[in-house]
Pentapeptide repeat protein
Amino acid sequence: MADFVGADLRGSRFERVDLTGAHLHDVDLRDAQFRGVDFGGVVMRGVELSNVTIHGDIENLTINGVDVTPLVTAELDRRYPDRAKMRPTDPAGFREAWGILERLWDETVERARRLPPPQLHESVDGEWSFIDTLRHLVFATDSWVGRAILGNPAPWDPLGLPWDEMPDIPGVPRDRAARPSLDTVLELRRDRMSTVREVIDGLTAESLAADTDPVDAPGWPEPRSYPVRVCLSIVLNEEWEHRLYAERDLAALRARGAQ
């Protein structure tokens, strides 16, 4: 426990800090940046919220008595007509969703190839580079399909990239400094995406409703059983959201190169 009263903490950095149950009263958070932060259960009263950008996994967000989550979902579905198809309920829906992702990622990679190779390692606003994004999707597939569904206790490729806030786990790679070429990472991606395609093509109503066999080895996800539907839904969400991030940042890189 620590009290900061009348303290000037401007410009301070808080990383891997536990503020569960903290009380903030009459605090100036202008221009603060939050990344990988858990706001579950947070209550804000008497706040002044303007010119704020929020991007993340949002559920049950109530503003001035209105749950805005359904409004946000509806607007995003309107902007991206294929987005609703990323919430499938049966094997045919999963196959359709994966086909959409295969097509969209082919288009995104073609746009990336038009940039000079060094730009594909550049960060935009502190986010992952395009290459880093592809490496993370390799890690996500290895984890939720290779490990959770197919039962490989250590499926990770050395170039796979976990999310930055994940604690270090023995045997799970995290080479943040690696700079593989686009073709090297795309070869990994093609292999992993074909694995997902095989799993989804083989789905039945029974297998989709089943739970995975627990993997008894340290790693990610944690060694326990998971619903197959949840594992595949996580992969769909990762692929969908990170492609949008990639498109956003590729546009910024193109503009940067044109200056």
User: Anything to note?
Assistant: The mean pLDDT is 94.
